[in-house]
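Appendix B, Record 12. Input sequence as logged:
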Amino acid sequence: QVQLVESGGGLVEAGGSLRLSCAASGYIFRLYAMAWFRQGQGSERNFVAALDWNGGFTYYGDSVKGRFTISKDATDNTVLLQMNDLTPEDTAVYYCAADTRKAAYYTGNYYAGDSYGDWGQGTQVTVSS
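Logged structural output:
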């Protein structure tokens, strides 16, 4: 079983920046992709960004393109999400997800939650206006 632990959330003013971190541990035969999703209060869970772990390709939701950057630290199985120019619409609980079954790779769909079998507990990001 894979454990994912997010950190880095908090309260920031509009226009500010935060960096989220997600560390994967446990039985990890191989990571194929890691991603971030978010869920605002009363809203559905939405895709934010994903990283093809081995190829290095990145994928972003339309609302965060140009502002957020996903990257990895392969030495300790950590994925990072640098969030710049934050707006109140970015307020949400941010969840880290991992694909250890190659689901995203085979389907080519890095945007769907179903492509990821392991999830973290989430970290709250609040952006004040």
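The chain has a mean pLDDT of 94.
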